[in-house]
Amino acid sequence: MQLQFTEEQLAVRDAAREFAQTELLPGVIERDTNQIFPAEQVKKMGELGFLGMMVDPKYNGGGMDTVSYVLAMEEISKVDASASVIMSVNNSLVCWGLEKYGTEEQKEKYLKPLASGEVIGAFCLSEPEAGSDATSQRTTAEDKGDYYLLNGTKNWITNGGNASVYLVMAQTNPELGHKGINCLIVEKGMEGFTVGKKEDKLGIRGSDTHSLMFQDVKVPKENRIGEDGFGFKFAMSTLDGGRIGIAAQALGIASGAYELSIQYAKERKAFGKEIAKHQAIQFKIADMATTINAARWMCMEAAYQKDQGQNYARAAAMAKLYASQVAMDVTIEAVQVHGGYGYVKEYHVERLMRDAKITQIYEGTSEIQKIVIARDVLK
Ligand code: CAA
Ligand code: FAD
What we know:
This protein is α+β, with helices and mostly antiparallel strands. It is 52% helix and 15% strand.
């Protein structure tokens, strides 16, 4: 048994690799240092079809499978994890959720420009006091007949400043607990909606992360996704696929650091020979190769299950849990392989190490993935 990809899947991988090398690599250090959003590059990603990869072509998408998406995410993440989180949120949290659960009108109005990359979207679940404990939504969406009155604050929203379309979870019927939560499509520019401060982050510094404030924002009823009270299940179901994207991001960060380490170990000499000839370095490379291989299989298993219409929640959580740990382990060792050079920006691995950490936090922390896995195993 081996991972065998179709010609189409390999073509997607090669196109993503080419794009990452020619468009993302130049300037990646400067964007990281100065927290510059890769606006030009994101526009090109849209033109190349990387922002709506799995969406049906009738809604301007690429009609590709999840395996292709994982291959592309890995290649982009090897070089620029800021660009890949922008891509991941748009593809798997925003476009996927809209295509799966949106009305025909919502797809025409919102999905089409999102899938083509004309605009980008954001997924807004987390709040200052509701992160892992996502059912404790404090943001409210009061039912006013033909519209909802939205009030509250969202935290940590990726694409927060650059998005045009926001999927916002909010509580309509607190007495119903999670069954009272709705997901509303909010447009930038709606009266009462303001974008708050941009976070100054450890990693993925080219992506923008903002708080969002809603004060008496009138959101038309037709902007609700699914039935009344479907918002929490919408968020959970969407995150199952999102976690495959973040697992692939973690895999890419690890593979990027691994490839740089091999190259460096073959060039750098110490004690009269290449450091690759010292067994201590060989063992690090062997551990990297082994764990990255396992992470890749797990990402592909989750993607394959999704493409086959199977239940992929457990496999997605496992892939994210494992690949994010591999990303941390591999990038820390990659800095070590590079010695002092690994500690400076020019060699890229210090950035990859900083970027790796977020994959253990967002779209459900590693502890939350273990809860998801254990509940599924023990049910
Ligand atoms: N699909 C569909 N429904 C699901 C589901 C899934 N995968 N998982 C749970 N549900 C349903 C349950 O069936 C339940 O419904 P019923 O009562 O009708 O059976 C309901 O949701 C509530 O589930 P739980 O009782 O399991 O809820 P809980 O309070 O114990 O929490 C949790 C479960 C898994 C911990 C969940 O709160 C969670 O995933 N937390 C993490 C939040 C998260 O991942 N946030 C990410 C934000 S987005 C982001 O981070 C993007 C980015 O960075 C780029
Ligand atoms: P908490 O939930 O307060 O957790 C703190 C610690 O306690 C963690 O280690 C956690 O694992 C642990 N913990 C909590 N509950 C349990 C438990 N039951 N058992 C064991 N351990 C537990 N959110 C969005 O909605 N949209 C976005 O686009 C988005 N982008 C993000 C981008 C960045 C850069 C960051 C940092 C976050 C982003 N998030 C986004 C939010 C992210 O999903 C949350 O930070 C994450 O879910 C954790 O929530 P929290 O920060 O409130 O931590």
